[in-house]
Amino acid sequence: MNKSFEKKGFVLVVILAVLVIASVVMGSWAYRSGSEALRAGEYSRDIQRKWANLSCQKFLISGFDDFFDPAESDLDQPSVSVDMEIKLSGMEYNLKISDEQAKANINSLFSTGDGELAATSINSLLSDIENPPKMLAIKNAKKISSFDEVFDYENPDQLMGLERLTCWGSGLLNYMRADKETLSVVTAGVLSETDVQKILDLRANGFEGNLAALCQQLELKDFQIAALKKILTDSSGCRSVWIKCQSDVRSWHRLYVEQTEEGSSRVLVYEW
Question: Does the model's pTM come out above 0.85?
């Protein structure tokens, strides 16, 4: 074989080897750069989520009424929840602001000692939800402090959609905001459907009286008044903000609940 040809062949092999090494090195650099860019992007989104969550917590404590009351006025009717959507740096945020005491309290439903009746009541308040979570079997009467103790679900969106049930607050139902179905379930055995409709009619006509005035309007008997004092209220000491953050890859859910008891308040945070 010609020596000149052998040298050319050897040089070609060396060049190919150098090209392979160079491509591996450049690929490694590109991968590292891509990974660093990905981490930087994730870090930026984490910062955005943290600021959004902190803003929600501050809003819940100091700005709830300033937002909820005008939004409720725009709807021209009492509301349990108000929804809004915002977009920030390519990420979508879905917010649900709620009066938790305008919902049936799960602990109160179970406090009667009739677990079967409580389960029936809860399922009736889930009946019109398209994809409701499934209720777990609850055997004892311990205090429930999270939806995770009550429901089996595939997606936190199912919990975010629960507008008639809560496990926070004093246990009393705010009749000034609760809807007809919730009022009917909570006052079952105390008020008739006619009484419930009267409450709705009174609200629609601008009624703003306290519970004593409501009982007078309904012309209730003493035993009914005594029973209502244990299950209804005309104000709220518990409100919440759900925040769902959606990126191209995944979603994050966080729930803030502010409870006010005996003049002091605390904020509970749940994350999925």
Answer: no
